[in-house]
Design a protein that fits this description.
This is Membrane-bound lysozyme-inhibitor of c-type lysozyme. This protein is of the alpha+beta class. The protein has a domain at 56-132: C-type lysozyme inhibitor (Lipocalin, Beta Barrel), CATH 2.40.128. 26% of the residues lie in helices and 35% in strands. A hairpin with a 4-residue loop joins strand 1 (57-64) and strand 2.
């Protein structure tokens, strides 16, 4: 017990020693400028946005009229989409050429849409309308 007490007292002395941290300024032009920079998003050009979207995987969640929830990973470099339904079942779809919006399909499954709206067709079931929420 005595050794424990010595350790605790020694630790208290060690943490109490040393330089005190400098206080951060809370007012003035420098602080105001940093706050404005933190709140101002860098504006990207259309080409930068398109390049970013086309070269990465994007996850979107859809809520459908039949109460189904779909999680879709759009893998743009590989021109594929992986659709996971509410039960966790995953289906890989391949990108098709669409006049407008998205179109992915494979063996009885299809995801088609424009903007936030999409139609999900699962093998053997009626198509259902879905809305992107994420």
């Amino acid at each position: 017990m005595r050794a424990f007490l010595v350790c605790v007292l020694g630790l208290g002395v060690l943490t109490g020693c040393g330089p005190t941290p400098d206080e951060a300024p809370t007012d003035g032009d420098a602080v105001r400028e940093r706050a404005e920079q933190a709140q101002t998003a860098r504006r990207r050009t259309g080409a930068e946005i398109q390049s970013r979207v086309m070269n990465r995987v994007i996850r979107t969640v859809y809520l459908c009229n039949n109460s189904e929830r779909l999680s879709v990973d759009f893998d743009n470099p590989r021109q594929m989409a992986t659709v996971r339904d509410s039960s966790g079942k995953a289906v890989d779809l391949y990108q098709e050429r669409a006049a407008d919006g998205i179109w992915y399909r494979a063996s009885g499954y299809e995801l088609r849409g424009v903007g936030a709206m999409a139609t999900w067709t699962a093998d053997g079931r009626e198509p259902t309308e879905c809305r992107a929420v994420d």
